[in-house]
Specification:
- The complex is a heterodimer of chains A (203) and B (465).
- Chain A is 33% helix and 15% strand.
- Chain A has eight helices and seven strands; from the N terminus they run E-H-H-E-H-E-H-E-H-E-E-E-H-H-H.
- Chain A has helices spanning 21-24, 44-47, 85-93, 105-112, 123-135, 164-172, 176-181, 184-197, and strands spanning 7-14, 70-73, 97-100, 117-120, 140-144, 149-151, 158-159.
- Classes of the chains: A alpha/beta (203), B alpha/beta (465).
- Chains A and B meet through helix 4, helix 6, helix 7 and helix 8 of A and helix 2, helix 3, helix 5, helix 10 and helix 11 of B.
Chain lengths: 203, 465
C-alpha cells in the first residue's frame, strides 16, 4: 500500500445520499480474479449511456473533476454489499479521499485496506464544502492526514477525527497482516486455550 | 457486570488488546464463495503465507453459477474462470468446497446451517454482507472485505472495533399472513438503512421467539440492510433441536459440553443496550418495497408515497429519484402495481419453509399472462426436499420455472436478470438501482406475497385470498 501523503487536489462533488456498492461497482464487473482495473467501471451505470458513451449529466464526467482525488458525497456512502471491489474501483479511478457525514461499516473498513481516507464531517460542514465546490468547480482542498486537517480556499477548513491506529497505517502504508502476525505467539496461546474450552469446535 | 450476548461473545474471543490498536478477535468459522475470495488467495500466495486453519473454512460456489443447464460449460468465460480459480484455490489449500456438481452445493448462507457448521457463541465471517444470517444461531456473524478474508486465512483473527449494541424488541404475535421477511422490512422501514450503523442488533420479544430457525435466519440476514454489523438471536430449544444430529454439530459428550456453553450465552437480565427499538408484531402487515432502498417500504394496503410526505430534504430527494427510477407515481395503490417477473429464492428466502408457503399460495393457480416466475432453491438439499414433498409439481403446473440452486436473481451475476424497465416481485434483500439488471425495478416481498403476485400479475393482499 502507498503511504498517504499530504496533498492538494481537486474535490469532486456527488450530492447523492445512500450511494450503495452496487452503484459504485455494478455486479457484472465482480467476476475478475485480479485486484486491478476496476476504475474503468466505477459508477458504470450512472457514468455511461447504454451505447457505452459518457453520460454528460453524470457529475464525475464534468471535465473539471477529471483529476480529482477527493470525493465529496452525501450520507451513508458505500451501503450494501461487502464487495471490496468498491474501494478498489474508487482507488483505481484516482480517488484517495472521501468526505461524507457517514459510511456503511464494511465499506469504511475496506477503505483503510486500500489507501483511501474516509473523512467524517458534520452535516453542516458538508453543506459548506458542497456550496464551495458548487460556487467554484475545480476548487482544490488540502488534506493533511498527519495533522488531521482539511483546508479550503474559501476558509471552510476543518479538523477531523480518525482512529490513531488507522491513521498510522495509512501514513506508513503498512500491511495489516504483518502487524497482526507480530502477535502470533498470543494467537497460538489463545488457540491452545480455545481448544481446551471449546473442544467440540476442533473435532 | 451484566452483559449482553454480543459482549459475552466478544469477551470470549478477544485475543489481545494492544493500546492504540484495534483489538484482535479470534474467528471460529470462515465461509467462502467465488466472488470475494480470489484476490485474497492471490495475496496469500504473493506473500508466501499459508491458511492457518483449513478446518475453519467451508466454501461453496453460488454467485456466478447458472441455475439451469448445469451440465453445459458456463457460457460466460469470466464467470467460468472465477469458478475454476475457486476450485484450484480450495484444492491447493485443502479446503472443504461444495462445488457446482456437489450434492451439498447451494447458496453459502443456506448451505452452512444445513450442515450445522455454525453454532451458538461462535465468531463467523465471510466475504459477504449477508453473513449476518448466522446470527439466528446466536453466533456473531458478519461480512468482511477481501483484504480481511486474506487476513483471516493468514491469522485466524481480525482487528475489530467493538460495536455498540441495539435491542430490537418485537412484542406480540405476528399475524399468520406476515412473516420474518415482513418483520425485517418493517424494522428497516422504521429505523432506515443507516439506523443500525455501528451496532450489533439483538432481536428479542415474543414474535422473535415464535419464529422458526429458518424465519430467524431470514430476519438476521437483513440486519445488514438496517446498516448493522450483525444481528443476533438468543439460542433456545429451537436452536438446539435444529442443530442436533447435523454433520458438524457436536456429538455425544461434546454435545452436553457445548449445550452448557450455549445456555450461558443469552443476554443477562438487565443488561444495558446502547439503543432500544420496540415494534408491535400485530401491526406488521405484509410489506412491499416501493423504492430503491430497503427502507422505502410500506404495508401492502398502502399507497406509493409522495416526496412531499417526507419532512427531511434528503429523504424527499431520495423519494423523487426512486419514483423516477421505479416508474411510479405518488398515491398509486401498491395492489395496483403490475409486475413482469417473480423470483423466489436467495439467502434471505430460499429455504424449504419459503417454498412450502409459496407452494401453498400457488397451488391451483396459474402464472398471470405475460409474467415469468422462477423458483430457485437455496441449495440442492432444499431442492430435493421440495421435490420429495411434490412442491416442484405445484410450481411447474402453475407455469413456474423450477431451477437449480444459486444466488441467481438476487444480484443477477449469473445471467438471470431483469431487462430495462421490467418490474419484479422478489424475495431477495436489496432493491438498489440495477441490482437485478440495469434498469430493472425490484419490489422486495415475502415468499407468500411473491407467489400471490405471480398468479395475479400485480401485488395482492394475501390476507384477502
Amino acid at each position: 500500500m502507498e503511504p498517504y501523503k499530504k496533498h492538494e487536489s481537486i474535490a469532486a462533488l456527488m450530492n447523492r445520499s445512500n450511494v450503495d456498492t452496487d452503484q459504485i461497482i455494478p455486479k457484472q464487473f465482480l467476476k475478475k480474479v485480479e485486484r486491478s482495473g476496476f476504475g474503468a467501471h466505477l459508477f458504470h451505470d450512472w457514468r455511461f449511456n447504454d451505447d457505452g458513451s459518457d453520460n454528460p449529466d453524470f457529475e464525475l464526467n464534468k471535465p473539471v473533476f477529471k483529476d480529482a482525488k477527493i470525493l465529496v458525497v452525501g450520507d451513508n456512502f458505500g451501503c450494501g454489499s461487502s464487495r471490496e471491489h468498491a474501494p478498489w474501483a474508487i482507488a483505481d479511478y484516482g480517488f484517495n479521499t472521501i468526505i461524507s457525514t457517514s459510511y456503511a461499516d464494511i465499506f469504511y473498513n475496506n477503505c483503510f485496506k486500500n489507501g483511501i481516507l474516509p473523512i467524517v464531517v458534520s452535516a453542516e460542514q458538508l453543506d459548506k464544502l458542497m456550496a464551495e465546490i458548487n460556487a467554484n468547480e475545480g476548487v482544490k482542498f488540502v488534506v493533511d492526514l498527519e495533522n488531521k486537517q482539511v483546508t479550503t480556499p474559501a476558509g471552510n477548513g476543518f479538523s477531523f477525527e480518525i482512529d490513531p491506529f488507522r491513521q498510522g497505517n495509512l501514513l506508513s502504508g503498512l500491511d495489516d497482516i504483518g502487524l497482526t502476525l507480530i502477535h502470533e505467539d498470543k494467537i497460538t496461546a489463545y488457540e491452545q486455550q480455545h481448544k481446551q474450552t471449546y473442544p467440540w469446535l476442533w473435532v | 457486570m451484566k452483559k449482553t450476548m454480543y459482549e459475552k461473545i466478544w469477551d470470549s474471543h478477544l485475543v489481545i488488546e494492544v493500546p492504540g490498536q484495534a483489538p484482535l478477535i479470534y474467528v471460529d468459522r470462515h465461509l467462502m464463495h467465488e466472488v470475494t475470495s480470489p484476490q485474497a488467495f492471490e495475496g496469500l500466495r504473493l506473500s508466501g503465507r499459508k491458511v492457518r486453519n483449513p478446518h475453519s473454512i467451508l466454501a461453496t460456489m453460488d454467485h456466478c453459477v447458472p441455475t439451469k443447464d448445469r451440465d453445459l460449460p458456463i457460457a460466460d468465460p469470466i464467470a467460468r474462470k472465477q469458478i475454476e480459480v475457486m476450485a484450484e484455490n480450495c484444492r491447493e489449500n485443502g479446503l472443504n468446497l461444495y462445488d457446482m456438481k456437489n450434492p451439498n452445493n447451494g447458496v453459502i448462507h443456506v448451505v452452512v446451517p444445513e450442515h450445522g457448521f455454525v453454532h451458538p457463541g461462535m465468531v463467523v465471517v465471510c466475504g459477504d454482507s449477508h453473513t449476518a444470517t448466522h446470527g439466528a444461531f446466536g453466533a456473531l456473524a458478519f461480512g468482511i472485505g477481501t483484504s480481511e478474508v486474506e487476513h483471516v486465512m493468514a491469522t485466524q483473527t481480525l482487528p475489530q472495533k467493538k460495536s455498540k449494541t441495539m435491542l430490537v424488541q418485537v412484542n406480540g404475535k405476528l399475524s399468520r399472513y406476515s412473516s420474518a421477511k415482513d418483520i425485517a422490512l418493517a424494522i428497516i422501514g422504521k429505523i432506515g438503512t443507516a439506523g443500525g450503523t455501528g451496532h450489533v442488533i439483538e432481536y428479542a420479544g415474543e414474535a422473535i421467539k415464535d419464529l422458526t430457525m429458518e424465519g430467524r435466519m431470514t430476519l438476521c440476514n437483513m440486519a445488514i440492510e438496517a446498516g448493522a454489523r450483525a444481528g443476533l438471536i438468543a439460542p433456545d430449544e429451537k436452536t438446539y433441536e435444529y442443530l442436533k444430529g447435523r454433520e458438524f454439530a457436536p456429538k455425544g459428550a461434546s454435545w452436553d459440553q457445548a449445550m452448557a456453553y450455549w445456555q450461558s450465552l443469552p443476554s443477562d437480565e438487565g443488561a444495558v443496550f446502547d439503543t432500544v427499538i420496540t415494534l408491535n408484531a400485530e401491526e406488521i402487515e405484509p410489506q412491499v418495497s416501493w423504492g430503491t432502498s430497503p427502507e422505502q417500504v410500506i404495508g401492502v394496503n398502502g399507497t406509493v408515497p409522495s416526496p412531499d410526505s417526507f419532512d427531511n430534504e434528503g429523504k424527499r430527494k431520495a423519494c423523487e429519484s426512486a419514483l423516477a427510477y421505479m416508474g411510479l407515481t405518488p398515491d398509486t395503490k401498491i395492489t395496483d402495481i403490475p409486475i413482469d417477473l417473480v423470483f423466489i429464492g436467495s439467502c434471505t428466502n430460499g429455504r424449504i419453509e419459503d417454498f412450502r408457503i409459496a407452494a401453498e399460495v400457488t397451488k391451483g393457480t396459474k402464472v398471470a399472462p405475460g409474467v415469468k416466475a422462477i423458483a430457485v432453491p437455496g441449495s440442492y438439499h432444499v431442492k430435493h426436499q421440495a421435490e420429495a414433498e411434490g412442491l416442484d409439481k405445484i410450481f411447474l403446473d402453475a407455469g413456474w420455472e423450477w431451477r437449480d440452486p444459486g444466488c441467481s436473481m438476487c444480484l443477477a451475476m449469473n445471467g438471470d436478470e431483469l431487462t430495462k424497465g421490467q418490474r419484479s416481485a422478489s424475495t431477495s434483500n436489496r432493491n438498489f438501482e440495477g441490482r437485478q439488471g440495469k434498469g430493472g425495478r425490484t419490489h422486495l416481498v415475502s415468499p407468500a406475497m411473491a407467489a400471490a403476485a405471480a398468479a395475479a400479475g400485480h401485488f395482492v393482499d394475501i390476507r384477502k385470498l
